[in-house]
Amino acid sequence: MSESPIVSVIVPCRNENSHIEACVRSILAQESPAGGFEVIVADGMSDDGTRVILERLKAEDSRLRVIDNAGRIVSCGLNAAIQAAQGKIIIRMDAHTKYARDYIRQSVQVLEETGADKVGGPWVAKGEGFISRAVAAAFQSPFAAGGARGHDSAYEGAVDLVYLGCWRREVFDRVGLFDEGLVRNQDDEFDFRLKLRAEASGNRLAFKARTLRAVHWANFSSNTCNMVTGNFESCRSTRCRRRCATWCRDFSSCYYLRCRLPLSSGLMQL
Prior knowledge:
Elements: E1 7-13, H1 20-28, E2 37-43, H2 50-60, E3 64-68, H3 74-84, E4 89-92, E5 97-99, H4 103-114, E6 118-120, E7 124-126, H5 130-140, H6 142-145, E8 157-159, E9 166-168, H7 169-175, H8 186-201, E10 206-208, E11 214-217, H9 222-229, H10 238-247
Parallel strand pairs: 1-2, 1-4, 2-3, 6-10, 7-11
Antiparallel strand pairs: 4-9, 5-11, 6-9, 8-10
Helix pairs in contact: 1-2
C-alpha cells in the first residue's frame, strides 16, 4: 500500500485452519470505505497449519498482514494488532462470524454519524448441529440474555456493550489496551473501563446499529462444556475473580465472568 489506510481490521486467531481462509477472504471482499482498509491477523502461534494458510493468502493480497501473538490468548492478539495498525479507525472481526458485505463501510459511517466511542451491530448467534443450535437459541433468548439490548436485532441506540466493535484509534490512547491478564471477557472489562471514562467526561459510550449485520457461529466444544459445568474456582484469572467481586458483588449474575456461566452472560441489564 502506498498510503496508510483509514481503517485497520484486526483479527485474533489460533488454530483456525477450518475457518480462517473463508474468514479472511470474506473480509477482503468487503465494500471498502473511503481511504481503504488493511487486515491484520494476530496468529497465536498456531500449530495446525493456520499460519501456512495465512501466508498463502498474504501473498495474494497486499492488504493482509500477519503478525505473531506470542501470548496466544485473545487479549494479547488484539493488543498486538492494535499496536501494529496503521489506520485511524480500528474494527475487530472474528473468525467464527459471518459478515454482511457492507459491514466495514457501515461501521465507519455509524461511528461518524453518532460520535460514539464504540459502535457495533446486534449479537446474533447461529449453531450447526443439535447442541450448537441449542446453545445459540439459549444465547438469543430473553431467559438467558435478560434485558441485554446487545442481543436484540431490532434495537438501535445507546448500549453499554456491543459485539466486536469499531473504535477510533484515539480511544485506546485514552483508555488503554485490553487487559492481558484475562483469558476471556477482556472485551467486557475494556467496555466497563470505557463506560467509566465516558460517564466521567460526558461522552457517549457505545451505539448499536441495526444496519450492521454479523452472525456468530456458536461452536460447542469440550472447552465450552468445561466452562458450563466448572465452578467459580476454576476461573483461570484471579484478577477476573477479584474484579467481579468488586463490580457485581454477585457471581451468579455476573456478566463479566463468562468463564463460569457463559449461557447467562447477559443477565446484567445493558
